[in-house]
Amino acid sequence: TNMRLDQKLWPLLCFLLLRPPPCSSSNILVVPIGGSHWINMKMILEQLHSRGHNITVLRSAKSWYIPNNSSIYTSINISTLADESDINYYNKMLQDVMECRTYPTFIRTFCQQYLITSMFDQGHKILARSVATIIEDTVFIQKLQDTKFDLMLTDPGLTIGMLLATYLELPIVFNVRWINTLLTPSPISYVPVSGSELHDQMDFLERIKNMLHYLYNVIEQHLIINPAYSDLLQQHFPPGTDLLSLQRRADIWLFRADFVFEFPRPTMPNVVYIGGFHCKKAQPLPAELEAFMQSSGEHGVVVMSLGTLISVLPRKVTEAIAAAFAELPQKVIWRFVGEKPSSLGHNTLLLEWLPQNDLLGHPKTRAFVSHGGTNGMYEAIYHSVPVVGLPLLFDQFDNLLRLKVRGAARVVEAYSLTKEGFLGALKDVLENPSFHTNMQHLSQLHRDKPVTPMETAIFWIEYVIRNKGAPHLQSAGFHLPWYSYFCLDVAALTIALTGLFIWALVFVCRLLCCRRSKRKMKPE
Amino acid sequence: TNMRLDQKLWPLLCFLLLRPPPCSSSNILVVPIGGSHWINMKMILEQLHSRGHNITVLRSAKSWYIPNNSSIYTSINISTLADESDINYYNKMLQDVMECRTYPTFIRTFCQQYLITSMFDQGHKILARSVATIIEDTVFIQKLQDTKFDLMLTDPGLTIGMLLATYLELPIVFNVRWINTLLTPSPISYVPVSGSELHDQMDFLERIKNMLHYLYNVIEQHLIINPAYSDLLQQHFPPGTDLLSLQRRADIWLFRADFVFEFPRPTMPNVVYIGGFHCKKAQPLPAELEAFMQSSGEHGVVVMSLGTLISVLPRKVTEAIAAAFAELPQKVIWRFVGEKPSSLGHNTLLLEWLPQNDLLGHPKTRAFVSHGGTNGMYEAIYHSVPVVGLPLLFDQFDNLLRLKVRGAARVVEAYSLTKEGFLGALKDVLENPSFHTNMQHLSQLHRDKPVTPMETAIFWIEYVIRNKGAPHLQSAGFHLPWYSYFCLDVAALTIALTGLFIWALVFVCRLLCCRRSKRKMKPE
């Protein structure tokens, strides 16, 4: 019975055989986030569909990313929800962030955080109103209830999912990029708060900064996010419900993290790591693109993409990038929308869309110029392609920092980008072999898993369906008020008792001393 | 490609096919603990051996549990090590613990803890001297170095393993029942310290008790355990090495926990849960035993065993147990050493040894009377057999508490055991169907895993060998001094700055007030 298989064969066999038979087909309600998050979620939905589950996706009627018609799911369209792909909005935000980046290190992350908070402030008010509309539509709710869903699969970033799941009393599986710092043990001495641009080895000042970020998150949660929902929650939910208590209901957090990328951090047993679950082998390229790749000869190709949200970089920046590319012996494929830069070299191919995963997995690819979106970073790790980072928004600064400290990326600031600086970083990554070696090491570790991250994700989704939740994996700390959770009550009593003891000691000493001195003073 | 297999077939297929090909055969050095821990470790060694690894076991030359001659490993005998199976020692300890149990709840766990500390105090001094002898034997150390071991597999409870691994600069995998509270984020508000007999939902007083247990552990570590090794570490190890820093070196902690049993707690990513990995399907019983089982008819059988360490319960207790058994309609199989109780009924079979796993997996078995050893508890869960607990030593009180709060066990105190009390608990577990139902639920959850715990254990052992360690999974908090780790420095600065700010505010206010009042006082 000691059958041994070839290294290349067994992942395939596992994929075919490991999967337990699906629980009899279930009804899964999905509330996805658009953009790159949707690319992720869709791949999970494809798997769930192929395993016989019925999927219903709740989407904005105006959504640009999430199609209305699909062979794998039924759509429910919500007209009150905003479209998540307002390109102008993100382009405006990019300007503001680049402004922030000019401030000193200690301040700029808070400046960026504040921009996100302003965005949240608007967004959450709209979301709360949408959910109120949905819940007050009794016919619609009755229809949802009649469907007898077995599970809500959602990202807590779009709060509709957990609000509806709680209202309909469904088990919840989260598909998340970030674990909520306020809900998970996150010792601020070595777990950098997201958005802080800190790594896990912090000096005293950095730990202070991390604490400030943590406190900022607390304030944001309680002064900005929670109030947006207070009317909704008061009217339609049991007393005491707030947004954090809704997140605490989650049975499983599918955490898109892998510790070749993420810094080691503690998590509760209902957190399942699925980082890089979307990565897959490269498919053959279209003929022209393949010809372009081959034409690069021994020098290979640099691939550049800034993701789905940003369409326009400042003119000055694109010109500098194009000019730097023009000086490379490599060929370049650049995902580019907008006016063609005047300094563009003959070696550079502009494309409005590119098959990113297939290009990164191509043997001619030598480097990846990226904004640092999470999906792209895991694809770069999976295919061992070193990165030149050009972070623009959100978690992209944090993401690139993670590759940088592992010697697998160089990071360039967009606001101060010059041709020379960018070219220097590019040449460093292309010519210094350590970047590729480090990336290969990360790739090897990342692929070394007992079960693929995708199979892990599917297993735990079906686990929650099979077992109607997973309350035995939830923290008992959730039932405590915050001062008990952080042991402040126990600490206060300890300090008080110690104080009392010292005071009593001093009191007794004085009493004894006084008596003695009185006795001394008394004439014999 | 959407092959689906029968529910019963796929675990077998996984077992055969999932296992990656072994890394080319490696040399593994093992320092096991005896007793029930050895039963566990041996099963892992059998797997590793079948996958082609060369195993060397370092054992006490006097060891009773760990055989010298084996077809799966080579032995290294250390004559200075004590035998771990001094039955008289544990019988004496049982008397002391039973004395402790008569004290009020709040005190008794500390009393027990103190007994363990006294045991540690002796044990660690002996261990430190043994390791010094080993290290000073340069011929022996050279021999070990020449073998070029790839890994140390050990339990940190027996410190020799990690001391040798550090000296020989080997990667370490721990096989542990308890995670060190001082090394893992263990919020004392909802993570009960081992030995505290608390569960995860604690009231204020219980949290105080938990904190005291935590502080007790801190004191024990620094005043009892660390000093025992200070000479050894000063002479043979780099400056600053202490017993905690050795544990921090561990690449993977194989944690014998499953959260159907253990309370949910945070852990770092280098902690791998393998609780119940030793459980397996029941094998057919010997013919006479099978006949005895069948003779029980519809009533079934009660199985009783108090584990490997304790041979003699007080006479009064065994008489009461025997008398209670005699009144049951069930048949009873009792693992028993010593003088036969006079009150023994005709339904009770005494055996000096019993095939515990096969009996628990037998369809006639209705209840398990157990001391609450970890192995037995997982076997009871695996085979869905409810438990009547008779905790005697160590973690047995904690273990049984875990099953009790889940409605799968009744617990009886040995020191105050009466026939009536014991019979009541037995009848409750046998007649109230909720115990069996709850155990079945735990069993179902326990078996619902993407990979078997044994395969998980083997995967991570080979992972560390393949990748020569797993430093990317280790906490960055380990490099911080304790006051930074617990953020006390950051908190102190924050409090100081807040204080300074308030003081400045008061100062300025006073200044302004004074000036105004002076102005008022000044005659116009």
TrEMBL record, chains A, B:
EC class: transferase
One MF annotation (Gene Ontology) recorded for this entry: glucuronosyltransferase activity
Subcellular location: Membrane
Reactions catalysed according to its record: glucuronate acceptor + UDP-alpha-D-glucuronate = acceptor beta-D-glucuronoside + UDP + H(+)
Domain of life: Eukaryota
Keyword Amino-acid biosynthesis found: no
Protein name: UDP-glucuronosyltransferase
